[in-house]
């Protein structure tokens, strides 16, 4: 007798964007990996909000075992508001079908009429450790709703051993937590001409590169203060901030404009495509990530692929991701940041390997499916 396919509902909202964040990139690769590894054992119903069909030119993974449900009759903001005020909106109404499992790669799950087995992916716990670095709405949502999602989860997924420790400490979760470090996701074959990139963004000097969203958690004010404070940096280097504005960016923008007025070479590129980002990684003098807190630090993996010297905040998760391959600084000490950036920038560019370099998306998809099969008893 042939066994029925397992049906997995997958929240594809982080993927349904033309400018994917780190969570969006992770979600897309997880979906691809599940699809590739499952074959005909699984049918995936991926759902996302597209009110009145306004989203155009989306790049979504397609496969025989993936079906998409576009939710066009009502905006996601309304459903999230209902969830926020305690009104249940079952996932089956969104997907128009029943599932055996539901994967939520962006923390929060929906309710279920049929008690579908939930799998929540928790990337970090910024709302617990650094709530001041989040928008009030996101902070309140996670404080109120994440404990419910965790409690309902058949198992959890997270992206580092450090975040797993944080989950156990804060929530005392008794179930299994799968740790899936983030593999390289870039299409590294894509490149732009560095001369054209330099001209487009007016990068005249050797440059220090930051990649990420412009938000308080990334600690960009301290990075700019460090740059400003060190003559050896300001005379010989440009500081390139690569990423889109996110939330609470006003103070960061104010400091950025202050440095521009002083005539310092500080450049904000906004969101860039893979080709440009690869070229910046490949040609930077040093890659710097001054974050106060992260769940993993995907740009570290990307920069390391291109052999960029690394200068990173001395926080546990960065030690986990980069090992001995970086210069580490106190994120609260601008002088230390400047000193370590300068030290890293003077290091010879060479090939090196990070602790998680061998992890692949294929391995992650297989690991998640093994747990699903175990629970489903097949």
Could you characterize what this model shows?
This protein is α/β, with parallel strands linked by helices and 378 residues long. The chain folds into 2 domains: 6-183 and 359-376, Rossmann fold (3-Layer(aba) Sandwich), CATH 3.40.50.2000; 194-345, Glycogen Phosphorylase B (Rossmann fold, 3-Layer(aba) Sandwich), CATH 3.40.50.2000. The protein is 40% helix and 18% strand. It is built from 15 helices and 13 strands. A 7-stranded parallel sheet has the order 3-2-1-4-5-6-7. Strands 10-9-8-11-12-13 form a 6-stranded parallel sheet, with helices on both faces. α12 links the parallel β11 (286-289) and β12. It is globular and about 65 Å long. The model has no long low-confidence stretch (mean pLDDT 94).
DSSP E strands, number = 13
Mean pLDDT: 94
Given the structure, what is the number of helices? 15
Based on Cα principal axes, name the global outline. Answer: globular
CATH class of the largest domain: Alpha Beta
| Topology pattern, helix = H, strand = E | EHEEHHEEHHEHEHEHHEHEHEHEHEHH
| The CATH homology group name of the largest domain | Glycogen Phosphorylase B
Helix/strand class: alpha/beta
Which consecutive residue ranges, at least 5 long each, have pLDDT under 50?
Answer: none
Radius of gyration: 21 Å
Name the CATH architecture of the largest domain.
3-Layer(aba) Sandwich
Main-sheet strand order equals 3-2-1-4-5-6-7
Q: Helix proportion of residues, in percent?
A: 40-55%
**CATH topology title of the largest domain:** Rossmann fold
